[in-house]
Design brief:
The chain is mainly α. It has two helices and two strands; from the N terminus they run αββα. It is globular, with a radius of gyration of 11 Å.
Length: about 70
């Protein structure tokens, strides 16, 4: 609850590598529009709502953390 999106992805990565990150990307959903027809690198969603933008930003920050 107190972790940023980037730190949540990083925790998943630390626990199970990219396999675990992929599980979170593909099996969780946060889009306000409940769209589940397009899989972005950061997960399913519309890509426009505040939740999607926050998740995308967190995923991109996570990728910077593991470089």
């Amino acid at each position: 609850m107190f972790l940023s999106k980037a730190k949540t992805f990083k925790l998943a990565y630390d626990l199970g590598g990219m396999v675990f990150v992929k599980l979170i990307v593909e099996k969780t959903h946060t889009c306000y529009e409940s769209l589940h027809d397009k899989l972005h690198p950061w997960g399913y969603g519309c890509g426009c709502c505040p939740s999607c933008r926050l998740r995308q930003k967190g995923y991109e920050e996570f990728l910077d953390l593991i470089k």
